[in-house]
Amino acid sequence: MNHRFPAYWLASLSTIAVIAVFLGGCSGGQNLKSGETAGPTRSQPAPAISSAAATPRPRPEHKAGDVNGRAQNVPLPIRAELTDRNTKEGLEEYTKYWFSLLSYGFETGDVAASSKQTSPSCVFCSALKKSIAAGYQKGGWLAGGHLSTPSVQSNFKIGASRQQVVVQVIQEETTYYRADKSVGRSPAPGSNTAAVVLATYAHGKWSISDMHPLR
Would you give the distance in Å from CA 214 to the centre of its chain? Predict the structure, then answer.
């Protein structure tokens, strides 16, 4: 099965200091007799600041996959607090987060994070997972395939056991490489498609329970 999103999906959706304060200490005043003047006061030396502490450690540079090898230093998407809220906004933010995890899987071959957020009942999700894993077998890898979700709209119903979300999914062109750097098969062109996602809220968290392409 082609592991990218099917080209027959419709593309009908519209796109939607730290402030450091240094407080210095003040020296106390002197009691002077009449006619006397205050002598020079010694200023307290400023505390030494470690250059290691003052300079943040640079993050390893992200490198996209290409003919020379798989992607490197791919940051794992961060789950925002809003994604765990049982609200329309929380559901839509969670859906974006889930697709960012799926995109991470395309780029790295690691689908563990998205799998933890997905119910086994989602047949299409399972097929995507297996197909991504196949692209990374025997030392192979994928280049491209990045996913973005410019439009995520839910018809949120309070108290419903499952919620529905309509998602626009844009995917970049995907190239398949073998371990010897040869192209495994013809690159899959980029796509602009749509899907209906079903999500379930339980135990304070969302999970994807099913997904269907819009025909």
Answer: 25
Dihedral sign from CA coordinates of 76, 82, 86, 92:
negative
Burial 124-141, CB ≥16 within 10 A → b, else e: bbeebbeebeebbeeebb
Query: What CA–CA distance (Å, rounded) separates 117 from 148?
Result: 18
Q: Where are the domains of the chain?
A: 82-213
- The tens digit of pLDDT for each residue in 137-175 reads 999 999 999 999 999 999 999 999 899 999 999 999 999
Q: In terms of DSSP H, where are the helices of the chain?
A: 51-54, 88-108, 112-116, 123-135
Please name which of 134, 138, 170, 164 lies closest in space to residue 151, comparing C-alpha atoms.
Answer: 170
Residue 154's SS3 state is: strand
What's 140's DSSP letter?
Answer: -
Is the pTM here over 0.90, yes or no?
Answer: no
What is the fold of 82-213? Nuclear Transport Factor 2; Chain: A, (3.10.450)
Place of tokens 């077998």: 137
The type of residue at 16 is I
Comparing 15 with 156, the larger pLDDT belongs to: 156
